[in-house]
Amino acid sequence: MLFTILAAPSMPPLLPLPTSVKWGDGAVQFSANSKVVTTDKSQKAEAAKITELLNLKQTGPATGTIRLVKDAGIKDPEGYRLSVGLDGITIRASAPAGYYYGAQTLKQLLPAAQFSTGAKATDVQLATVEIEDAPRFKWRGLMLDTARHFMQKGEIYRFIDLMAMHKLNSFHWHLTDDQGWRIEIKKYPKLTEIGSKRKETMLGRYSDGKYDGTPHGGFYSQQDIRDVVKYAADRHINVVPEIEMPGHAQAAIAAYPELGNLGTQIEVGTKWGVFENVFNPEEKTVSFLQDVLTEVLDLFPSKFIHIGGDECPKTQWKASPRAQALIKERGLKNEDELQSWFIRRMDKWLEKKGRRLIGWDEILEGGLAPGAAVMSWRGMAGGIEAAKEGHDVVMSPTDFAYFDYYQAPAASEPLAIGGYLPLEKVYSFEPVPASLTPEEAKHILGGQANLWTEYIPSARKAQYMMFPRASAMAEVLWSPKSERNWAGFQVRLPKHLDRLQSAGVNFRKLDAGR
Ligand code: TNX
Fold first, then answer.
1. Which residue in 149, 174, 248, 443 is the catalytic one?
2. What is the model's pTM?
3. What domains sit in the chain, N to C, each tagged with a CATH number?
């Protein structure tokens, strides 16, 4: 057995680990001038993407083939079988995503240099191997906060590429917050004219009380959004937009003060934290947000639409005679019920449009709308409660999934928001709590890592915070629980980091001795 392993030409580590990998003892030639061969029309688009993904030469007569074969026996549309055999290379799947993931795995069998931009395929010897694979979870997410700091469209594309490489399939795009509104809404141009710009930004730690005196701004035009959605869809990634309500709304209120509770002009947020400037609960405000969502639905085909719902202080609603009158008029008990009234309105509306609402776990407070799904961030408890009530859940607890937290002791790291989340802890994340029955556990759609960007002003730093922790998260969400093993992951990781290195990713280097 050991002899076989040593004799094979190269057995590069795969990440995330597939369901089953059986190395053979033969070797086959992978030709730089391979042709991706299809057997049916539905594979054409995938074949072109795979040709590009693998940097295949397309000149002169082909000197090798990669066959795509439809196999209805592969039940999971994301599943595939990759065979590198003496008879050539074959990817079997029942749907386009499967072929694509098979090709991503095949790319990991090639030299790390293939991950650099502009790489050209080279002829290499591959060990024969039979790989069977399918994801453990349907929702394998990464959230990027582009509200606190704007990121260029090209930088978003790079994140999407890296997600695809890790077989992550859900890009949660945080587009609005107190410090910036980043999505063009045609009906309300001031949202971006005013709401996308702040006059300056907090500098250093919160307690320093310093500001940089430099304006910060940026937003995505509707064309940008369509481009990103298309770019992601081509890589089998769904983009879930998040439009925050009723809290984290200061930028919107700065643009349209009538949406607030004070009626006075306020400015787009310049510091971090939880602000009291939240949307007022007027019918007009609900209509405004539904108008916004109408444009959002037009841009994002995602079934799930994220409406935030987190951290909504009730101070202004308590103090506002108008909000109090509305509570009475609507037969509600208190401000928590007002928040839940707000969310239910959005839920019903989204349902009518054929979509589903997802929100942070605070949406459970005051009663949750029936079809709504919960993203559990304040630990797992909210997710457990929601799953027991029959709601779908995405687990994203701070303890395991907050990549804005330090990944090593703070003294040796660039400034971060706080917390401590080393790689090993991410790897130990188990999205399905033991306290759920198998029936309840079916409501756990998957998990997600979140990158909030208060202390992350650049894509470079975002990459540093993201990797390799996102590599660990990818394995948690894709690989069978039974195959997951920290020691094994550590053995595979350095070679995987070579791929990230080639791709020009600014990942955090492993600690010496690892
Ligand atoms: C809490 S997670 C927030 C964000 C912050 C984050 C910082 C969540 C739903 N709300 O607004 O950026 O903490 O870690």
1. 248
2. 0.97
3. 4-133 (3.30.379.10), 139-485 (3.20.20.80)
